[in-house]
Design goal:
Elements: H1 2-30, H2 35-72, E1 74-76, H3 80-104, H4 109-118, H5 121-145, H6 149-157, H7 162-175, H8 190-214, H9 216-222, H10 225-256, H11 266-269, E2 271-273, H12 274-280, H13 282-295
Antiparallel strand pairs: 1-2
Length: about 325
């Protein structure tokens, strides 16, 4: 009998202890907090918040330092010559678009309002011709630039190659989800090359037809009237095509693309970060590393920079 009671005693003690703990816990929960309890809890919460804020601040500082280190690793992508060409090209094109569209749609109410704001149709025509002069000037400047060593180097890089076709189809596969590999670009992607050569075509049409319209009396003395009519239609249609290409194609690829939004400053600063270089121009980056190994010195860039026309490049390079 005594043995059986001794065997039951630990179980009873455990049960009784558990019951007492529950009763004390319930009493503690039912207990109204006094000032000391509130002060203790307030102190503990403040301490936990302080530690959490310090932890987050340390993480943010770590990220900032890492970003600063990446930003310091930059390469020269565009020379001052190229950047100056692009600025003149960009300003000239904007003036032509802003003043040209109201002339094309002169009967529209918004066009009439525009003429009133700028001081009349004649003022708009003068501004338009200023933009045309800038376009002609940068065209001549760029052609002279191509005779320099840097210009020839850029021109060779911008020539279309069979790899551009392969890159195009690889990009389509990548966007459609059929491939996880993005095409590997060198100094210029096929998108940038398209931009560059599109400017050539546009300049030939716009400058040629624009000179016919500007000096129409001289043109009529040398050519039949239908030459002037053709020039007017070509100038109008090509202007609309160029406007859409710049606003939709070029501005999106150069500035509004989610990967570089809201602005790509490379065409203005001439610099591109190591991170972007490795991502957007990996083949050029590898070429630069090989050159660095061969020369035993730091190489800032594979080439000086693309031509003004190239400035209208899309993805990558931070252009326009």
């Amino acid at each position: 009998m005594t043995t059986m009671m001794e065997e039951k005693r630990p179980e009873e003690l455990t049960e009784r202890l558990s019951q007492e703990i529950n009763e004390e816990l319930q009493a503690e929960l039912d207990h109204t907090l006094d000032e000391s309890d509130r002060a203790r809890i307030k102190t503990e919460v403040k301490e936990r918040l302080r530690k959490e804020l310090e932890r987050r601040k340390a993480l943010e500082e770590k990220r900032r330092r890492a970003q600063a280190k990446r930003d310091q690793e930059q390469f020269t992508r565009f020379s001052l010559n190229i950047r100056a060409q692009h600025i003149i090209l960009a300003v000239g094109c904007i003036l032509l678009i802003v003043t040209g569209l109201p002339i094309k749609f002169h009967e529209a109410e918004w066009a009439k309002l525009f003429f009133k704001l700028v001081g009349g149709l004649q003022v708009s025509q003068v501004i338009h011709r200023i933009g045309a002069t800038m376009l002609i000037a940068v065209g001549v400047w760029h052609m002279l630039f191509l005779f320099t060593r840097a210009g020839r180097r850029e021109f060779i890089e911008l020539l279309p190659r069979p790899k551009d076709i392969l890159d195009f189809f690889q990009n389509i596969k990548y966007f459609l989800g059929f491939s996880k590999e993005h095409p590997q670009f060198g100094r210029f992607s096929y998108l940038e090359k398209f931009d560059y050569w599109a400017v050539y075509w546009g300049m030939v049409i716009m400058i040629g037809s624009g000179l016919f319209l500007w000096f129409h009396n001289t043109a009529l003395g040398l050519f039949p009237k239908y030459f002037l009519d053709i020039a007017r239609e070509a100038h109008s249609d090509e202007a609309m095509l160029a406007t859409l290409a710049i606003v939709i194609w070029h501005w999106y690829n150069a500035h509004f693309n989610p990967g570089i939004f809201p602005m790509n400053f490379t065409i203005f600063t001439g610099r591109i970060s190591k991170e972007r270089m490795m991502k957007e121009h990996p083949l050029e980056y590898e070429q630069m590393l090989r050159a660095q190994d061969n020369n035993g010195s730091v190489v800032e860039s594979a080439v000086e920079a693309p031509s003004s026309a190239q400035a209208s490049s899309p993805e990558e390079v931070e252009n326009v």
